[in-house]
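Please decode residue identities from the backbone states below.
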């Protein structure tokens, strides 16, 4: 849930961020979002090959990278080329992340896949809704950077909890 909450706390407010904080003209904004989408396709293809041997590594690394990108977008909002580069990376990792979690659900709840899938959909929807709602509140009250900081914090926590899940799956106690 935290991955989706963090992802959509930021993703929902990309357009106003690009228009106001980074002052992108509409043409640049549209091209940036297209490049993000194409990077997402590449990320989905890339992760499919890695999931067979690196599932938990990906579930730990992807939200950590996304948290770093969220902070980076705050710090470099006036440097368009860096913002575009980070958003391409966000598209690559952000689209690959749900594939990783879907794989985790199918592997670790394989004996009751239907219940696991239903629970996964409910948790994802709750995460998206909560992230977008809290991000919107922060956008309105503290400014454009509020949802980005929220996303960074939640994504970092997602990474930590994925590491704990990995340790738990190996029988290692904290």
């Amino acid at each position: 849930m935290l991955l989706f909450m963090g992802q959509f706390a930021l993703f929902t407010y990309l357009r106003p961020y690009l228009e106001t904080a980074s002052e992108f003209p509409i043409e640049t904004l549209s091209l940036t979002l297209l490049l993000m989408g194409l990077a997402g396709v590449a990320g989905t293809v890339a992760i499919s090959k890695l999931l067979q041997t690196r599932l938990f590594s990906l579930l730990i690394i992807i939200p950590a990278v996304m948290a770093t990108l969220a902070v980076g977008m705050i710090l470099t909002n006036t440097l368009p080329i860096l913002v575009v580069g980070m958003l391409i990376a966000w598209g690559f990792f952000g689209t690959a992340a749900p594939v990783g979690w879907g794989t985790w659900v199918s592997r670790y709840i394989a004996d009751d896949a239907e219940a696991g899938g239903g629970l996964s959909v409910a948790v994802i929807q709750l995460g998206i809704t909560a992230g977008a709602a809290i991000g919107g509140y922060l956008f309105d009250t503290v400014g454009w950077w509020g949802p980005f900081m929220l996303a960074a914090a939640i994504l970092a926590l997602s990474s930590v909890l994925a590491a704990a899940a990995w340790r738990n799956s190996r029988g290692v106690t904290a």
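Observation: The chain has a mean pLDDT of 91.
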